[in-house]
């Protein structure tokens, strides 16, 4: 397998999804930095689009990883050794950056003389938001726990069920995908039934949207997209624009419905608790036939590709390290409009510079090792 920077190994449309997702998140965090108390409709829309950026990452991750697992199944590589190799490759891609940034965040607690959160050890095992809301520390890590467990649970279920039924194939992959999706929806239903006992200061986002057991399905909608793209490739390509249109209509339609009915997730709405997150993921899934078939040689392709490559580093450093450090030293509310613009420029430039350095001198060398013959030789026998 070639390096992730090899152009012919990349799909431009999927790079667009990554770049769009991280830019939406950065724009959302920019409003938190500059307009933390604003109730402006425009600011709220930008912050909302930031949450959609995370959902884009979820479905995209599931689509890519689901495709890898399908290829393993089709190649009859379903022994535990094969899944171990899959996990090792994923962990070398995600864990080094995560633990480095986690340690930096812990260091900043002492630099800023901030209280150390209780049960800090959970962050080292991706348990900080397993079934309850996580502490207000390294807050962006909530999505990484969901991804790590999604990558762990799927192969385990494929392996165990493969042993039970003595065969692995596309229908077992589909069954595992639907099982995980159903399980997450069921957990959200149980949450909704019990929500009446919640305290007045309940936060839907912290208590449900960012909790692992309620969100595993968000990755597996990507698995579902990978299943359709691989086994029904002609239809996936032929109906890409129809599917894209349906996705846009579904996404816009559900949010028009929310606006017309003045629905609010913090008011214990069953619609939000049980259905909303699935609808958003499905609407994103429907756009993927278009994105996954989008090839381009446009001038800005290199910019899109670079942002895509740096997106994981950007996601890890932009908030807890860059934004909160700026807020610690600068009282934003005391600044003039021009000074705020300068702070915003500092936030964006610092984020991209630090992310570039993190990717170039830490993340990418580890990825090169992962793709090396030496690493592959560990699993040759």
TrEMBL record:
GO cellular component: membrane
Record keywords: Acyltransferase, Hydrolase, Membrane, Transferase, Transmembrane, Transmembrane helix
Keyword Transferase carried by entry: yes
Domain of life: Bacteria
All residue ranges annotated as the Acyltransferase domain in the record: 13-358
One of the GO biological process terms: lipopolysaccharide biosynthetic process
Gene Ontology terms, MF aspect: acyltransferase activity, transferring groups other than amino-acyl groups; hydrolase activity
TM region positions: 12-34, 46-70, 91-112, 149-165, 172-191, 211-234, 241-260, 272-291, 303-326, 346-367
Full protein name: Peptidoglycan/LPS O-acetylase OafA/YrhL, contains acyltransferase and SGNH-hydrolase domains
Phylogenetic classification of the source organism: Bacteria, Pseudomonadati, Bacteroidota, Flavobacteriia, Flavobacteriales
